[in-house]
Amino acid sequence: MSKRPDGAESVVVVQGLGKSFGPLRVLDGVNLEVRAGRTLCVLGPSGSGKSTLLRCINFLERPDEGAVFLRGERIGFGRVATGEERPMTDRELARIRTRFGMVFQQFNLWPHLTVFGNLIESPIHVQRRPRDEVYSEAEALLDKIGLRDKRDAYPSRLSGGQKQRVAIARALAMKPEVLLFDEPTSSLDPELVGEVLAVMRDLAREGQTMIVVTHELGFAREAADEVLFMDKGVVVETAKPQQFFASPATVRARQFLQRFSEQR
Amino acid sequence: MIANFGVVLGEWRALSTGFVNTIWICALAGVLSLLLAVFVSMLLVSPQGAVRRTAQGAVDVLRALPFLVLLFIVYYCLPAIGLRLSAWTCGLAGLVVYNTAYFAEILRGAWAHLPREQEEAGRAFGYSGLGLYRRIILPQILIAAGPVLGNQMITLVKNSAFLMVITIPDLTFMANQVQAIYFVPFESLLVAVALYWVICSGIEWVVRAMDRVALVRGHE
Q1: What is the domain-level CATH number for residue B140?
Q2: Mutation test of the interface with chain B: which of A108, A118, A152, A166, choosing the one with the most B Cβ atoms within 10 A?
Q3: Cα separations (Å) of A27 from A48, A75, A142, A257?
Q4: Are B124 and A170 in contact (CB under 8 A)?
Q5: Which end of chain B offers a freer environment for a tag, N or C, measured as fewer CB atoms within 10 Å?
Q6: How large is the ipTM?
């Protein structure tokens, strides 16, 4: 846990992360650091490895090389008594994943459970926290995302935007140390994007630590503390958003931003 | 003819005994085979090839077998290797084993159609192994497979008529006895048909209820 000059300790540190699917090199020597209360936006063209990076951070995908640390603790490897490292078991990995909250592009709510059931499922059955506490927190989360009236509805009855807000609440219900967003607005109809981004903006403002893979440049510009630009599995540029959007340091970033502004 | 029905209905005690026997042995077999099938379905998707192939082989053999043949094997062959069971136990065991193979295959199929992301969401939220299956996967595949499981239950009820050949007094057995005593085959068997129809309609009703559940709580 390294204390920084500005006071915030780092929550997630990624060092030299590499991942290949067959001959395809998806991630190559990726480094990043997210400090407590900060929002990191990961930008880049489709197929640049952004989603894979996110999935490697909580080991939904096992990286081939490199290391991920959550508050100084190495993910994916435990230590045996002799001090040697061994890969974590499925169970240990599952356990440590509860400290990340994940929001998927396709929401992936559990359709057999109500909205409320989705929120309390893992806190009660995995984290085994007291029911009273979990219930009252879940009620508060429903208020926060403005879906109190959908408490007992099943996901099939919700709009895409509502589903994603519930998915965010489900992740928050775990009291995660960091939230991971995997293109949370990419499968939404344009008119529903706003309501989801509004919730995410509030979270960023409240000091929730977040890593957001997104194509929403507007959101990155306003809400990110730092922007990480990826292309072809490599981190091309890391910068403050003001600097990144005003004068990107690399040609590739400049081209990316140009393409995007032309589409608008 | 009307008088013949009177004779048959006069034997209502015998027929209702058969009716009740059919219901409880099918219900018990249905519940037991569903529990077993939940377990077997896990073997059918085991990451260990040997386990998976053995389980799939056993399921395939059972599904290729006519139920009557399986019943004879249980009833006549087990005593030959020193295992003596009552007719009731043989009948129940035969129904359970046979039906488990179908149920397990139905669950495996539903599992194969479950979007991978559901399992992944479970893992992302801390589930693994048995907990993942019990809390996230199983409820969803039961909802998805409900109507098909119901249809298989109807097949189970019809297969249970074979139990009469190993002397179990089920509905078919009793109806057959009534017709043999009074020689009223048409009337007696027609009553049996009506009673089977009642049982199957009951199952159909449950299936429709499950369809409505799947509409709200399933994947589109």
Answers
A1: 1.10.3720.10
A2: A108
A3: 8, 17, 37, 22
A4: no
A5: C
A6: 0.91
